[in-house]
Design goal:
This protein has one helix and no strands. It has one helix spanning about 15-135. Keywords: Coiled coil.
């Protein structure tokens, strides 16, 4: 640092040397302070930048996780909708199947009754034939 020192010419040389030595010491001290401030500024700027970068990295990581979670939720929603439509179709088929089974049961019951009647009629016909055979013999 250049200082425009206007020292009076009346000061004797030993005092001028002492003043110059003090001023030089003051300038050196000031330069040391400036260097320390720059070092501290660099340190804290670096630390702040590192902290900011770390936070940004975490935010990026969390953002990625949220995107994956969102995709998973959408996929689960699609699966649930597909399952619901399948359940609805199965319910409709179940109702249709119940109607068909009810009709099958009714038909089976009617066939059973008719088979009983047919068996009884066949037995009666056989008995009648036996009676006729007995009469002929």
């Amino acid at each position: 640092m250049n200082a425009d020192l206007d020292l009076p010419l009346t000061i004797d040389v030993p005092h001028q040397n002492m003043v110059l030595a003090l001023l030089t010491e003051l300038i050196n001290f000031q330069n040391g302070l400036i260097a320390c401030l720059k070092e501290v500024d660099t340190y804290y700027s670096t630390q702040l930048t590192a902290t900011a970068n770390e936070m940004l990295n975490k935010m990026h990581e969390y953002s990625g996780r949220l995107q994956v979670l969102n995709r998973d939720i959408l996929e689960l929603t699609k699966r649930i909708r597909l399952m619901m439509s399948r359940v609805q179709r199965l319910d409709k088929r179940k109702v249709d199947l119940l109607v068909v089974r009810k009709e099958e049961n009714e038909i089976s019951r009617l066939l059973w009754r008719s088979s009983r009647c047919t068996a009884a009629a066949a037995a009666a016909a056989a008995a009648a034939q036996l009676l006729m055979l007995e009469k002929w013999t």
